[in-house]
Structures are given as C-alpha cells and as structure tokens.
UniProtKB/TrEMBL annotation:
This is Tetraspanin. It is a multi-pass membrane protein. The keyword Transmembrane helix applies. SUPFAM superfamilies: Tetraspanin. Gene3D superfamilies: Tetraspanin. It is found in: Membrane. One of its GO terms (cellular component) is plasma membrane. It comes from Dibothriocephalus latus (Fish tapeworm).
Amino acid sequence: MPDSPDPEKWKLTDSVYAKKSTSNVNKYWRVGLILLHICLMLEAAFILALGTNLKFGPTSGIVRMFIAMFLPNAPTVTVELIIGVLVVSNPEIIAIGVVLMIVFAIGVIVSCFGNKKALKIYAFLLGILILGLIIATAITFGKQNYLSDKALLYMSENLETYKNNYHDKNQLAVATWSTVMREGSHYCCGLAGYKDFKGCTRMPAPCCSVDNQEAVESCKYTTAAAMKPLVPGCVEKIIFYVNLSEPSLAVAPVSFIVPPLIVLIVVICAALC
C-alpha cells in the first residue's frame, strides 16, 4: 500500500506558501504599481525633454508650450523672461529629470517583484525624494526675488550677445532682449540705460524713444544720451513682470509633485497590506 500523506509535511508546506504570500503583494497590486510608475517615468521624460529643449532648441518650442499651460494669459514679456529663468536653471532641471527617471525605474523593478520589504525601502527613498522637491519648491517661490534674480542673471549674461546682434549664436536671447525692451508697460534700454551700449555704432531703437514711440529712424549713442528724459534701464521692468507671474507659476512644480505623492501612498498601502 502507498504511504499515507504525512500531516506534518502538509502543515510545513502550507506554512511555507503562507509565508511567501505574506511577503509579496498580489499580482493586482503589482500591475497597478507598474502602470503608475510608467506614468511617472513619462513625467520624468517630459522634464528631461524640457531641459534638452532649453539647451538645444533655438526657440524652445516645448518650453513655450509648457509655460502656456500655466500662464495662458501672461504678457509676451513675462513669457520671454520665464524662459530666461528656465534657461539659467537648465542644469538643475536636467539633474532633477535624471534623478526622477532613475528612482521611478527602480520603482518599476521593485513593483515587478512585489516584495513587501523592498517596497518599504523604496517608499522611504521615494519619500525623501518628494521631501527634497517640496523644499526646493519652497525655496524657489518663498525666497524674495529668487526668480527675478535668475531672470536678471540671464539678461545680463546675454546682453553682449544682443549688443553685437549674434542671432546665430543665441537666437532666443536676442529675441528675449528685443521683446523686453519694447513690450509691456513702457520702453526700456539695456539693464542700466543707454550706457550699457557704449562703443556700439548703433543702438536699439527703444533707447531713443519718447512716450513708448521710436523718436528717430536710426538710434545712435549720442542721440540716446541726449534724450530728455533718458529712457530707463530694464531692471525694474524685469523684476515686476517676473514677480507678477510667480503665483500662477507656482502651480507647475506642485503639479509635478502630486503624482509621485499619490504613488507613494499607494506603495505604502501595498507594502502594509
């Protein structure tokens, strides 16, 4: 006769299967987590595309589309200045995109295995990342004139390019300077006034303007110096238009933080179930 099943053996087998089932999440959790992390990787890919477009795109089409989403009614001068802020912040944007892509890729791998201990470790890592993003956002929009200082830095770095009309070197910067001096509430000239263009044979037309109207056909340095009153520099104008956009622009980083935060909650729930 065949041996009868050993009850102790069955009990041991059942306990092993029970242990395995409690150490891993079920397949539905895994599929859900994988799909969520793929969505997060698309978000990281968009941030990387944003940074790449800022670095290599002559007119930054993706960036303009991004700004239009959050500042649909913003004046043209504001849009150009915000692009300048993003250009100066480009290394940070690319770094954030790379870090997010790596972390979310780890999330996909962890989700595939579904091990609860690994999910808890990943949840801790994701929590630190989200906390870092929150702190960075708070500094960016909480520190007075942080964004406007970035805009002034961009305009200052590219003033020489504009003075020498280097369209081929930086088409975006030249277009930004032209817009800032002409658009908005009033005309302005350089950062500090006409003296920024000392040594130039030709001056930008706004430097020889009266009541926001170009007063002469060809603006020269001596003409700009003789204007009464002198056309002011653009510093105050830049600060005003950048600060004007800050409340609406703050929605952008928040919209990027919310999805990882939701996924963090789901990961914690999966790890504790």
